[in-house]
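Same chain as my last thread, 284 residues:
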Amino acid sequence: MKVRYLLHLYEQGIRDFSGADLCGADLRGVTLIGVNLTGANLRGANLSRAFLIKSDLSGAQLNWANLSFAKMSEAKLVETELTKANFSGAFMVKSKLPGAKLSGANLSGTNLRRANLWGANLCAADLERANLREANLSGVNFNWANLSEARLIGAKLYGASLNGVNLSKAFLKEVDLGGVDLEGVNLKEAKLTGANLEGANLTRADLSAAQLQNVNLKGADLTGAHLIGASLARANLTWAILKKADLSGADLSDAMLNGIEFEDMQIGGAILPESTERFLYYAM
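reply #2:
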């Protein structure tokens, strides 16, 4: 379909363009609010700064499409093919993307607040500085994704896969990560105040200089984890495994450390509760 003809039909009040072939089309800055583009072929199309508010692109093919800075609040992209698509700076508040295929996509700086990404594939996607506050990220594949400085406050991460993910400097305040596998994950300088990490696997994770005040780490496995300079004030580490963990320079003021396993744990320069400090002095 020719772009000029598409826009002419839109001006005439037509909104159903399902199945349209717009492969490689130049749709920069166009206004297509509330249109039906389900099943459309938009591979490699340029939709930069387009207005697609409340539009339905479910099942469409948007591989390698450019949607940078597009306005897509409340848009539907259910099971849409978005591999390697560029959404940098896009506004996608309350958008619906369950089952969307976003592997390798660029979502840096994208606003996905309160979006539904249930079961989406974001493997190796770039979400640096993305806003994912209150988003539904249940069952999402984040393996090897970049979430550095991303905002995930209030997000739901139940059943999400986070192997090799980069969460350095991410905002994870009060997020529920209980029982989640975070082995080897980069959480350096992450903001995790009040988060739930009970029973989480943090083996060899990098939590250097992370903000972990009031965090629940009860029963968490922190074997070989890097917690250098981390703030763990008032954290609950009851029954946590800290074998070979490095807590050099960490702040554990008023932290709960009952029943921890601490063989070969490094605590040089750490701030510890007085009773714990005395106990460890004689035990280590």
